[in-house]
UniProtKB/TrEMBL annotation, chains A, B:
Matches recorded under InterPro entries: Homeodomain-like_sf (IPR009057), HTH_TetR (IPR001647), Tet_transcr_reg_TetR-rel_C_sf (IPR036271)
Pfam families: TetR_N (PF00440)
Entry protein name: TetR family transcriptional regulator
DNA-binding positions: 25-44
GO molecular function: DNA binding
Residue ranges occupied by any HTH tetR-type domain in the UniProt entry: 2-62
Keywords per UniProt: DNA-binding, Transcription, Transcription regulation
Amino acid sequence: MSSTREKIAQAADTLFYEQGFEATSFADIAGAVGISRGNFYHHFKTKDEILDAVIDRRIAKTKGMMETWDAQGQTPLDRIGCFIRILIRNRAKITQFGCPVGSLVSELGKLNHVSQSRANALFSMFGDWLAEQFQEMGCDAPTALRHARHLLARSQGVATLSQALQDDEFIDGEVVLMLDYAAAAASEFTQEGN
Amino acid sequence: MSSTREKIAQAADTLFYEQGFEATSFADIAGAVGISRGNFYHHFKTKDEILDAVIDRRIAKTKGMMETWDAQGQTPLDRIGCFIRILIRNRAKITQFGCPVGSLVSELGKLNHVSQSRANALFSMFGDWLAEQFQEMGCDAPTALRHARHLLARSQGVATLSQALQDDEFIDGEVVLMLDYAAAAASEFTQEGN
DNA sequence: GATGATATAGGACAGATGTCCTAGGGCGCG
DNA sequence: CGCGCCCTAGGACATCTGTCCTATATCATC
């Protein structure tokens, strides 16, 4: 099967993250993959098609992560912890380039790009998944959504600020606070005496 | 004095915020100001010079805001509240284009731009000012810095997420939580019985 | 009114960009 | 072998970019 198409999408994914969508040219991607510039047309008609493929990749990758977390975490609190800890796992890249989702959404928003809503869907995926966890904990639906969005916003802020400060260690402290927040939400529904 | 130069910087400021630095061309700025494209060279040698002028403007505007807050707020907590409430004052623009500071820093970071550090200084200004307030409250220096960065990150996250969700109202709830956070930090140093 | 500095318009310039076309290579199938 | 199909390379293309030049307009000063 067309492995070249996949390689293009993969290279574009990385470059869009590290340089931005607008700042990444066909030539950049061609150089990264090692194919000729004109050859692109056979796999992707336009740059927007590449963007769509990249978003598809990210959606798939996100789904995969969530499945892993679902399998790995015993309790909702454990699973939420998995989400929070992405910040630590990707610490170096986040400090350098920010959050892949957040920065893409921000850029596409400014460009008034057609695929803006598809990128925003990535946020919704995280939001919905987090809300599910809080509901399983015992929260009612609106509270769960509130908690979910709150954590999502916190993680975005940590990413942006660690990039601005160029400070790895800032992430660690904030992760602890976010875990505390989730734990506090959970403790409302557990036995006091435990 | 050269009012044209000022008008260019002002138009560029707006356009860099709403479209991004890279995506804004000389032609865009010229169109917005209503002057010819070639005329730019007389006022700014390069696009980077315009960016520097824009950052200067923002630094000056930020200083002005802080002076206003210093004069307006009676207590450190009041003044911190002024900062937090920018989110509400600029709600509509933030929902559409995100935070001007955060998105510029993010973009310049990805472009590895020379002026990246000058843009980051904008963050430091807010951070230092907030830390001062927390110190006046009674916090020791490291704690004050921690609180300051925490609030800065929170506000960034709120901006990013409200843009992604296209949701005005999300901001209001988060602002309340941030005010609570500041109040809790302050209450440590006030009389219990008050 | 003449002079000179400053501001402006218009366009030239090379390079890059996204898009598209064409010619040929490699390979399976009849 | 010969046909047809997918893949690739290389380059054409119009357009846009940032930069820069030159000729003209504006205006204060003498």
